[in-house]
Amino acid sequence: MSDRLSLVFAALADPIRRDIVARLSTGDATVGQLAEPHQVSTQAISKHLKVLENAGLVSSARDAQRRPRHLQAEVFDLMTAWIERYRAQAEERFSRLDEVLAELEDRPSAQDRPRAQDRPRAQGAAS
């Protein structure tokens, strides 16, 4: 996987990493703070953070002895643009389907149409 969008979606495929992103959306946090709600080691959280950093979702800074992690929210613009393109296409297809269904509802059904033997015959027609 080399493109950034693939890296981002792959990084977010894991529920712990999504939890980390959710936590970081409320503010910066250290590895220890991010590990608190999970039943995993800080080393495991560090590995998850590495994946998120490689995808560009998270960055780290130095604050004395702490290394708080920060969410890079602009990456969501990339995801939103990609999702929006396909959402718009799907919505357009559903709109066309609605038009076709509305046309079909306006047409008389086969049961409502007079059958050939029920139609009045033209004068002079052979019987």
TrEMBL record:
<feature type="compositionally biased region" description="Basic and acidic residues">
    <location>
        <begin position="105"/>
        <end position="121"/>
    </location>
</feature>
<protein>
    <submittedName>
        <fullName>Metalloregulator ArsR/SmtB family transcription factor</fullName>
    </submittedName>
</protein>
<feature type="region of interest" description="Disordered">
    <location>
        <begin position="105"/>
        <end position="127"/>
    </location>
</feature>
<dbReference type="Pfam" id="PF01022">
    <property type="entry name" value="HTH_5"/>
</dbReference>
<dbReference type="InterPro" id="IPR036388">
    <property type="entry name" value="WH-like_DNA-bd_sf"/>
</dbReference>
<dbReference type="InterPro" id="IPR001845">
    <property type="entry name" value="HTH_ArsR_DNA-bd_dom"/>
</dbReference>
<feature type="domain" description="HTH arsR-type">
    <location>
        <begin position="1"/>
        <end position="90"/>
    </location>
</feature>
<dbReference type="InterPro" id="IPR036390">
    <property type="entry name" value="WH_DNA-bd_sf"/>
</dbReference>
<dbReference type="InterPro" id="IPR011991">
    <property type="entry name" value="ArsR-like_HTH"/>
</dbReference>
